[in-house]
User: Which sequence fits this backbone?
């Protein structure tokens, strides 16, 4: 184990802002993309179903 | 109905649906392993302290941003050569993820630059060419968004993509050339002085995780695109009935 | 083949001659943009000399893009683009002819204006010569690559802005080598390397761009 | 007539943004024959003509000229086929005669000026020879485009709504033009919403989208 304590881990030897800023933004981007994809899928499916109902009428 | 033409999307859609969870799971497992290596196995760098751990994100993201553009060009070329719709869809599905990774590479580059170079942005060759790569992604997506006819959007995007991929090495070379003329070599993010074996492993595992993630996300996006385009067909109707 | 190429070029020059207003817009844009920089930055001669080559080159890129929007758009609107595409010659030849015509109409005037603008920025005579030379090699590349963008964005809403987005990143090497050549002369490191790289880019653009423009035209007209 | 078909379309289909306009459409056309494309608005008449010109690709099937696919005979087909679309393809800044000269240059032909003037006069444009096309009326510009057909010397004419915008006199002129061309061993394919009377000539017909 290279960290003396969890506090040392979170402090990242004084680089906390930069290291966690990087990893945090990456995580946020991935989460955002996944969320957008799910929403897009739901929207497309519901739109196509509406179109289908419209077509069959 | 010409069955042959619809055969591949009809089989692709359920197949991709089954593959997505596997790739997602692989991505999660690899990311966990990669993060473990980056934070608990890789030792502190004697020059850059803990700040260097950013490279475990930055380098894989920069690799991915390049690879994805090249893979897109591969699909575009196949689509133009053999007129296969699925390849255009794959190229299109990859673009937003590629742009996302390019952005991440820029962001992490800036966060690394601040403590190391003392500035958020330095016109370093790598950062500059990443920025131009981001412009290329944006141009590709803007062109696709501006064209309503999917057939034209596919082909126009593919051509732009191919022009871009021919240009990427030229752009990269020119930026590097410009950079050496104007400010001389500076400490580079990727040429960290003590490139230990563990660091290389960490970056490789993270890059693999990013690959698996990219495949999973692109498959999901491609499924949606295909469903949208093939909504008139039997299989798409069946899928829509199933999916709530 | 050569006859068709010349016919296309002559046609575009004839049409541009009938519409001199459109043609002058891009040239005046070039002059105005460059003249605005000293006003924004200040008249300090050493500073102006450093930024001069870059400013002239960036303004040339923008002026070129401004006129590229119309490269195929007018012909598309009145249906003559279809006639051009159906002409009994390769479409790549058409795209090449259009790019050459664009360069003659819009590129050559830039070459003639550039030394005057260079003087505004206090560039010495040898740097002015290199500036013109670099523009002479570089602007055909702008026309050739821009032709691809013009073909891809044909008839799209917001096509004018879109072409900028698509094509400017592809112009980066031309900008770097072009402005770099003048910088090299100013700093005494020489311009040959830059100019030969620019020449290489021109050769590549000549070989590749007409084919891709032709394909793009086909896609857009369909 | 027993001429071998020069133009043949087999099983062609056309799609526009997700739906099929027509499919399994086919015909053959030989010298001295005309073809009338029928169909309502938005049914794909123009799309069919553009496929026959080689401007668009059919979603399925193929078009052959003298037995070869269009894409392989682009240059030959370009010399033997003339197309007038629903936009005229003439330049507003040039006079009618300059427009014809331009078309000839681009087609690799030398324009016979006297013949061109005669064609323009035949279409009733004798008084507009020196005016830029910009000041001409819609119908007059249409006539310039149609005069281009005569000077192009093509074997096959493909005309998209040739009668649109023409007055009664103009319609009769154009009908005469088409009839003379076909009877002299030419070929013509056209769409029209107006009744078309080609005395002594019964065009084949094909319907799209029903």
Assistant:
């Amino acid at each position: 184990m290279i960290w003396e304590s969890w506090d040392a881990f979170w402090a990242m030897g004084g680089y906390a802002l930069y290291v966690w800023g990087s990893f945090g933004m990456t995580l946020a981007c991935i989460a955002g993309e996944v969320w957008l994809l799910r929403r897009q899928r739901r929207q497309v499916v519901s739109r196509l179903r509406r179109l289908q109902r419209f077509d069959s009428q | 109905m010409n069955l042959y033409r619809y055969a591949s999307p009809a089989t692709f859609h359920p197949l991709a649906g089954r593959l997505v969870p596997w790739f997602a799971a692989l991505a999660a497992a690899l990311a966990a392993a990669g993060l473990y290596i980056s934070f608990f196995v890789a030792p502190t760098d004697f020059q850059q302290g803990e700040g260097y751990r950013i490279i475990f994100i930055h380098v894989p993201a920069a690799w991915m941003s390049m690879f994805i553009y090249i893979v897109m060009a591969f699909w575009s070329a196949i689509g133009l050569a053999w007129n296969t719709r699925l390849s255009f869809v794959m190229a299109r599905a990859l673009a937003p993820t590629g742009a996302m990774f390019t952005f991440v590479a820029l962001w992490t580059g800036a966060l690394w630059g601040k403590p190391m170079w003392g500035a958020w942005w330095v016109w370093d060759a790598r950062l500059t060419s990443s920025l131009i790569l981001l412009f290329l992604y944006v141009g590709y997506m803007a062109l696709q968004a501006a064209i309503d006819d999917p057939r034209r959007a596919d082909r126009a995007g593919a051509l732009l993509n191919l022009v871009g991929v021919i240009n990427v090495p030229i752009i990269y070379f020119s930026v590097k050339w410009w950079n050496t003329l104007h400010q001389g070599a500076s400490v580079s993010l990727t040429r960290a002085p003590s490139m230990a074996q563990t660091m290389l492993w960490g970056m490789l595992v993270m890059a693999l995780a990013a690959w698996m993630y990219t495949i999973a996300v692109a498959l999901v996006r491609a499924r949606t695109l295909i469903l949208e385009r093939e909504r008139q067909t039997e299989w798409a109707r069946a899928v829509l009935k199933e999916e709530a | 083949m050569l006859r068709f190429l010349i016919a296309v070029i002559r046609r575009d020059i004839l049409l541009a001659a009938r519409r001199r207003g459109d043609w002058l817009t891009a040239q005046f844009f070039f002059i105005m943009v460059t003249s605005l920089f000293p006003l924004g930055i200040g008249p300090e001669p050493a500073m102006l000399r450093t930024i001069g080559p870059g400013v002239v080159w960036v303004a040339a890129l923008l002026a070129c893009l401004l006129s590229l929007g119309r490269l195929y758009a007018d012909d598309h609107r009145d249906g003559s683009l279809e006639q051009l595409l159906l002409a009994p010659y390769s479409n790549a030849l058409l795209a090449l002819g259009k790019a050459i015509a664009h360069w003659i109409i819009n590129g050559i005037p830039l070459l003639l204006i550039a030394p005057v603008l260079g003087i505004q920025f206090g560039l010495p005579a040898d740097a002015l010569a290199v500036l013109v030379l670099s523009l002479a090699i570089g602007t055909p590349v702008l026309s050739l690559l821009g032709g691809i963008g013009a073909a891809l964005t044909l008839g799209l809403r917001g096509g004018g802005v879109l072409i900028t987005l698509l094509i400017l990143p592809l112009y980066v090497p031309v900008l770097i080598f072009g402005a770099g050549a003048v910088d090299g002369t100013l700093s005494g490191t020489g311009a040959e390397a830059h100019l030969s790289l620019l020449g290489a880019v021109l050769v590549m653009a000549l070989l590749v761009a007409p084919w891709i423009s032709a394909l793009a035209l086909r896609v857009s007209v369909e | 007539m027993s001429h071998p078909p020069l133009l043949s379309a087999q099983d062609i289909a056309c799609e526009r943004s997700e739906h099929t306009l027509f499919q399994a459409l086919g015909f053959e056309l030989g010298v001295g024959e005309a073809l009338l494309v029928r169909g309502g608005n938005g049914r794909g008449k123009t799309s069919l003509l553009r496929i026959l010109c080689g401007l668009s690709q059919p979603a399925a099937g193929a078009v052959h000229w003298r037995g070869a696919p269009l894409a392989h005979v682009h240059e030959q087909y370009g010399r033997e086929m003339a197309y007038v679309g629903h936009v005229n393809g003439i330049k507003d800044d040039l006079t009618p005669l300059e427009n014809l000269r331009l078309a000839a240059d681009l087609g690799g032909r030398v324009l016979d000026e006297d013949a061109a003037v005669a064609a323009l006069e035949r279409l009733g444009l004798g008084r507009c020879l020196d005016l830029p096309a910009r000041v001409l009326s819609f119908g007059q510009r249409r006539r310039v485009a149609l005069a281009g057909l005569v000077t192009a010397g093509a074997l096959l004419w493909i005309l998209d709504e040739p009668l649109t915008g023409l007055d009664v006199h103009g319609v009769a002129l154009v009908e005469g033009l088409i009839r003379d061309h076909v009877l002299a061993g030419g070929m013509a394919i056209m769409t029209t919403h107006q009744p078309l009377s080609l005395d002594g000539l019964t065009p084949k017909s094909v319907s799209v989208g029903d």
Observations:
- Chain B touches chain C through 29 residues (CB under 8 Å).
- Helices of chain B lie at 3-41, 55-82, 85-117, 125-146, 150-183, 197-229, 234-242.
